């Protein structure tokens, strides 16, 4: 018997023992993830048996089956792991998420603070390019306008429209009367 044949049979015995252990883990569990990993191990073992047979018998007949087994194992493990992760977090955190949303909806939103700094005061340093846009040490020049905008409390709305008569009217979205129930 050649050394390659001996190595082949030792490999087949070890792979068979691994397959039996994986089948036992699929049967016993205890969790879904254990079972999914065990099925993935079984697919890897089947592919390894085919690869060992191709190496010993010097043929390439099983390559498509090995590729398909690898793809099925990978995609199945990812799909089940994603399902289990979403399902477990959704059921466990559903109550706390609802409570957090209720707290956020009932929480009082504080008015933004607008720093009052004299732009003509040389002691205050160079005047920023946008009113209220004091830059901190870690803020980039390209984002300082956004900081100033958020601190100002600006709320975007539609511009006024002009009718054919030359009268100015307001869009229904921008009209804010105190008596308006909206």
Task: Output the number of helix runs.
Answer: 4
User: Structural class of the secondary elements?
Assistant: mainly alpha
Helix content: 55-70%
| Share in β-strands | under 5%
- CA-CA gap between termini: 91 Å
Task: Flag low-confidence runs.
Answer: 171-177
Question: What series of H and E elements makes up the topology?
Answer: HHHHEE
Main sheet: which strands, in order across? 1-2
* Rg value: 34 Å
Mind describing the biggest β-sheet?
Answer: 2 strands, antiparallel
Mean residue pLDDT: 74
Tertiary shape? elongated
Number of strands: 2
Tell me about this structure:
With 182 residues, this protein is mainly α. The protein has a domain at 3-93. It contains four helices and two strands. It has helices at residues 3-28, 32-57, 63-106, 144-152; strands at residues 161-162, 168-169. A two-stranded antiparallel ribbon has the order 1-2. Strand 1 (161-162) and strand 2 form a beta hairpin. Helix 1 runs antiparallel to helix 2 (32-57) and helix 2 (32-57) packs antiparallel against helix 3. The longest helix has 44 residues, at 63-106. The radius of gyration is 34 Å and the shape is elongated. The termini are far apart. The model is unreliable at 171-177 (pLDDT under 50).
